[in-house]
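Open question from group meeting: does this chain pack into something compact, or does most of it stay loose? Before anyone orders reagents, we agreed to write out a predicted structure and look at it together. Recording both the input and the output here so the notebook holds the full record.
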Amino acid sequence: MDFIRVAVVLSSLLLAALAQKPVLSIEPRSAAIKQDESVSFRCRVVSGSQPVQLEWKRVNNQALGDNVKVGPDGSVLTIAYARPSNQGQFRCIATNAQGKTTITAVLTIKQAPKVRVTPTGPVTVRVGGTLSLECSASGRPRPSITWLKQEWGSETVLVSSTTDSKVVLQVTVSAPENAGTFVCRVQSSLGTSEEKVELRMAGGSSAPVEPRASVSQEDITAVEGQTVTMHCQATGSPTPDVSWSKLRAPLPWQHKAEGGTLTLSNVGRQDSGQYICNATNAAGYSEAYVQLEVDTPPYATSVPDHVVARRGEALRLQCIAHGSHPITYRWSRVGSASLPSGAKTTKDGMLTIAQLKVSDSGNYKCVTTNHVGSGETFATVTVRVPADGAVGVEVEGHQAFWTCDDTPFILVLTTVPPHTDSLGVSTKTKAGLVTEDDPLPF
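Structure tokens returned:
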């Protein structure tokens, strides 16, 4: 009876252990993505009595959203083409006969910084007056805010904050030099945005001031496929209009110009050149220049790429590469560790053979390399003898390269027994090419 009691107690304990609420895990617990990207959260039942039903909800029972989908078994929640409204907590709820368990995942939507300045310019202030310029920033992660003053192509930082979403700049105008162009610039890991406001002093000189344009970088080097950004600032009164152009060519079709910032996407070698920032107002115009060089891997060609020559003639193959210099050239023979004897190469990509042999026939490869990448090209060389019905032979090792009426073939020579004076040949013919039937010892 004691044994039965123990068994009953153990069974009860086992059933109690198995009959428990669901235990959950979720991966990932949090995610931070950019707008229009996608992410999935997986809710997994670690333990608990079956059956377990899974469902997903937002905090405060908000709607999941029309771009949020839940998998067939309820375990996977996917947010496609995320937008700011998707940010927040998502709850995975598991329910069985013993109760309910909830686990939460957090989604953060990264947003490029945006800026808003009030009042908008131009603003006129009387002598001795004070003006408050307010700059508000938004974005995730939180952007830094910096107030600057632009003067004669340079910028002076006035106040900066990395913790506030709003920064107010107090400007007192007691002299003409207190007026000018003020810039609020907000910046995060996702980009930069800025707005300008022009402050004028009432009763001061009303004569317009010629613009002066300047760029943050005069020389830019990029690699093919990258995105290039150019920044231009301009001072003057009234505030100059800023535009971009390219010397002796239109701007690339994949360009975006916003204020003084020009962005070129997926640049190629054809985008190299001089870019001009043009600043114009009623008093005149000013220009600043950016020189862009786009580095590209070499694109190789062989001239010629197919050669048919007679035995004894000279061979010249020129490897030509278009791309960023310096470029190195290396010739090789396909299927061989080295070039034929008598072959010579030059550092500018020339391959020469003074006197061709039938055995020089084959494919040759030129590999070109620069600091960006490499490229390759091939040339086919066919060597023949004069079509006069004569038979020619060249011996290399255990192979003889024969030619009869312009048609090359190969014979494998075997050792001739002393009692015969004939040429011992073990061969088979296929498509005009005679090759060894079986490997023979020499």
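Observations to bring back to the group:
The first strand starts at residue 23 and ends at 27.
Residues 327 and 370 are 5 Å apart (CA to CA).
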